[in-house]
Amino acid sequence: MQIRLMNYSDGPNCYDLWKKAELPVASFDREMYEMKALLEKNPTSCFVVFSDGKFIGTVIGTFNGRRAWVYHLAVDPSFQHKGIGKALLKKTEIALKAQGVTKILLGVSVSNLKTTTFYEHNGYSVMNDAILMEKNYWNQEMSKKGGE
Length: 148
Hints:
This protein has 148 residues and is α+β, with helices and mostly antiparallel strands. Helices cover 33% and strands 21% of the residues. It has a five-stranded mixed sheet, with helices on both faces. A hairpin with a 2-residue loop joins strand 2 and strand 3.
């Protein structure tokens, strides 16, 4: 197993893996647009995993100066329950802590609640004092312009 920093050219493999792992993902164009921005701002805390040349895992760790977030932690279903997700999460946590992070947040989609046990085993707990809200600016016009 080899873990290395993620780069933008990994995007198509990441997207395919996210879908295979049943992560709720946006359109390919939107995911690649957002991935580019995340990697530009967080080049040292996003990782991919390979095993025998096969792309098997991803994690995107971000830090905005106040809080860190973990996005798209995914492991190929045929490689799950082998410590790969834990290794990815730990590598990201180390990279984020090196930047001075004091708190890491992550969201679990209601369609993927089975992952909460994994996160709890890795020291995360449900926040009972917050509601995650959104304002969505992505639309078909942005998609047609490539996110401009």
